[in-house]
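tl;dr need the bound structure. longer version: we got a ligand (adenosine-5'-triphosphate) that a collaborator sent over and nobodys looked at where it sits. i said id run it. heres the input, straight from their email, havent touched it
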Amino acid sequence: MIDNILSFTNLSKTISSVSNQIIFSKIAGTVPAGEKIVFVGPSGQGKSTLLRILGLLDEADSGEMLLLGKPLHEWNPQAWRMNVCYVSQTPVMLEGSIEDNLRTVSRLHHTEYDPAYAAHLMSSVGLGDMGLSKEASTLSGGEKQRVALVRSLLLRPKLLLLDEITSSLDDVSKYAVERLITDINRQEGTGYAWISHDRDQAARIGERVWSLSNGTLSEGGISCL
Ligand SMILES: Nc1ncnc2c1ncn2[C@@H]1O[C@H](COP(=O)(O)OP(=O)(O)OP(=O)(O)O)[C@@H](O)[C@H]1O
């Protein structure tokens, strides 16, 4: 039985183009199976950078990462990305319709597209009435955020890395997204690390807190908020 979905040690990241600015140095953390982590900290401290590294969309300068007990170098990157999905605050829509966008992840990862699950997820995030044939590039920022989330959830990942994914949403849609993700966590054991600058949201969604400040990652209970 593997207790941690993901763990990392000694992770360091420097931005070389900006006079070797160190973003963080030798940080470590673990995500136990099914964990609900809220990720907080002042702006510009490297939260997005860390999640992008953990989701293999950016590279650390040094350090080790293990997924399901296996080190990164033993993973095919595509298989890693299927288990650990990073969802951006400013998602990029692929060319074509909403349905094209939803189907693309299945095509890339050679998994079967499940239209009933796609419909359930779209309706759960308040987009049930939106025709899937609508051109994705014409969607609003908040609609794109939710389609991008659905696109990732269709992979049924073990871990979600959520980067302020409700920043463009009204309260009704925001609560719907929180409910969907906490339901999936409860029903399927999908863990998450969710960046949020909203203290009320952090208290609703988090069980454990990561805080990144001055290049150091600290972990604690929700009472640290
Ligand atoms: N590709 C890049 N090139 C240059 N600088 C970068 C790059 N990516 C991030 N940075 C810098 O790294 C630092 C950390 O950025 P990051 O977006 O990870 O912080 P954050 O904690 O997520 O911030 P916020 O809460 O405002 O989203 C910032 O100073 C940012 O300008």
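gonna send this back to them w/ a short note. Residues 15, 17-18, 23, 41, 43-49 surround adenosine-5'-triphosphate (CB under 6 Å).
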